Amino acid sequence: GGTLDSLDPMPMQGPELGVQADDIEAPGVQQEPKQEVLENKDVVVQQVHIDGLGRTKEDLLTYEIAEVFRAKNLIDVMRRSHEARQRLLRLGIFRKVEVIIDTARGEHALPNGLDVTFEVTELRRLTGSYNTMVGNNEGSMVLGLKLPNALGRAEKMTFQFSYGTKETSYGLSFFKPQPGHFERNFSINAYKVTGQFPWSSLRETDRGISTEISFPVWKTNQTLKWEGVWRELGCLANTASFAVREESGHSLKSSLSHAMVIDTRNSSILPKKGGLLKIHQELAGFTGGDACFLKEDFEIQLNKKLFWDSVLSASLWGGLLLPLGDEKTSIADRFYLGGPTSIRGFSMYSMGPQSDGDYLGGEAYWAGGLHLYTPLPFRPGRGGFGELFRTHFFLNAGNLCNLNYGEGPQAHLKKLAECLRWSYGLGIVLRLGNIARLELNYCIPMGVQSGDRICDGVQFGAGIRFL
Fold first, then answer.
1. Where are the annotated segments for Disordered (predicted)?
2. Which residues of 422-460 are buried (b: 16+ CB within 10 A; e: fewer)?
3. Distance, CA of 274 to CA of 123 (rounded, Å)
4. pLDDT band with cut points at 50, 70 and 90 for residue 1
5. Would strands 29-31 and 94-103 be described as parallel, antiparallel, or unpaired?
6. Helix extents (H) in 185-327
7. Which residues, 6 or more positions from 14, have their beta carbon under 8 angstroms from its beta carbon?
8. How far apart are CA 301 and CA 303, in angstroms?
9. pLDDT in tens, 29-50
10. One-character DSSP codes across 340-395
11. What distance in Å separates the CA atoms of residue 272 and residue 310, rounded to the nearest whole number?
12. Which residues contact 52 (CB under 8 A, 6 or more apart)?
């Protein structure tokens, strides 16, 4: 769904490239009590040491380990030490963290006193990484250089180069969390992205800078962002339609955006329970630039576990793009719909307003999906490899159109409801770690409008965000 979001620079705060979750060893809490310490006996944590610090500033870590001092008994000490260990690893500056709990020593040692020691191994000053990334129906190779803990308080400098099937990008980012509150952080990015969009016969090059602040409020995660982008649009082929040629040229977009996310799912790739609510708004033109619009979009997903390990999942997406002033909206800002990651059974982003076979995107869209995920028939590889696969039955529906803003909301809703495109089918889903998923589906597209490109029968999809 969404816009040409594939043109966003790669998520710099995405899965850590340096340390994969699998590389971090399972938490081992070693106890070496020199005397019998009963589990429910009152204890006092007298000292907490951190051994192995090099460039890390100690004041950053005092916040992360403070809770250990509040422990009242041994079980509590172990639980709080484990939580502190997780918090230290989350900072992304240590390769490993070991916990040792021992009886207190020295002249001020109490008989029921304990000392807790965290033995840490810092990441190297410069780490490099090479990996492959799956975007929405495209693959890319990513090379990264990272300075974890650049200034000693978990700041991160990252340089990333990505070469993909449809886009090439490089970017430089600086990330700084607030000490003691890792969820509150600030980042600044500079990037250049070149993308090809064959469904629109369009080539786009973006050069931009952005600054972003993230912080939690109650159960939500909020992000405020300013972005300044110089966009260059051109034609991919000589056969590009006149409508696309008309959009070619340079433009400047300066926008303020806000995103709110509530995510209670146990996994973002193949969730079994929980829900997601995501609301995003963007205002362009207020801080300068040629592009002038207000853009609103949302995403809702609910998952419910049923009998026999099956999961029912429902999702709804929607968006609206309002031009401000006299300018028309740009092909680069409009929404696109269709393809194996949104309305299956249609070709990638190939529905809605078009001109001579080039899809121009729409100013309003909605899409809904209903899935039933079940384990593979007869459960091969149960408890192991087989758990990465799921069979799913799906029903997708949606619409994408342009609006005449003189008509009023009722006419808009009517326009979005008529000429409904929908599809149904079944297929197999494979989860790739917690990073992406692959789908091989048999699709039956219905409600096809003239000009839509369909993919009747078998369709393959790869991506991170699915309807």
1. 1-20
2. bbbbebebebeeebbbbbebebebeebeeebbbbeeebe
3. 34
4. low
5. parallel
6. 242-247
7. none
8. 7
9. 455 444 454 566 788 999 999 9
10. TTSSTTB-TT--SSEETTEE--BSEEEEEEEEEEEPPTT-TTTTTGGGGEEEEEEE
11. 8
12. 119, 120, 121, 122
In contact, 344 and 396? CB cutoff 8 Å: yes
Do residues 325 and 444 lie in contact, with contact meaning Cβ atoms separated by under 8 Å? Answer: no
The separation between the first and the last C-alpha atoms of the chain, rounded to the nearest angstrom, is 8
Percent of the chain with pLDDT over 70: 91
* Residues 444-461 pLDDT 10s: 999 888 889 998 899 999
Which tens digit of pLDDT belongs to each residue from 54-92? Answer: 999 998 999 899 999 999 888 999 999 999 999 999 999
Structure tokens at 404: 């005449």
- CA–CA separation, 367 and 1 (whole Å): 8
Query: Is residue 35 helix, strand or coil?
Result: coil
The pTM (predicted TM-score) of the whole model is 0.83
399 DSSP β-pair partners: 366
Is residue 15 over pLDDT 70? Answer: no
User: What is the pairing mode between strands 113-122 and 44-51?
Assistant: parallel
Q: Report the C-alpha gap between 192 and 161 in whole angstroms.
A: 10
Q: Which residues contact 406 (CB under 8 A, 6 or more apart)?
A: none
**Contact of 365 with 337, CB cutoff 8 Å:** yes
Q: Which two tokens stand for residue 24?
A: 């971090």
Indicate if the pLDDT at residue 363 is higher than 70. yes
Which one, of 316, 318, 322, lies nearest residue 301 by Cα?
316
Pairing verdict, β 436-446 and 421-432:
antiparallel
Q: pLDDT tens digit string along 130-168?
A: 888 777 778 889 999 999 999 999 999 999 999 998 889
Residue 42 is predicted with a pLDDT of 86
Question: What is the spatial distance between Cα 367 and Cα 298, in angstroms, rounded to a whole number?
Answer: 11
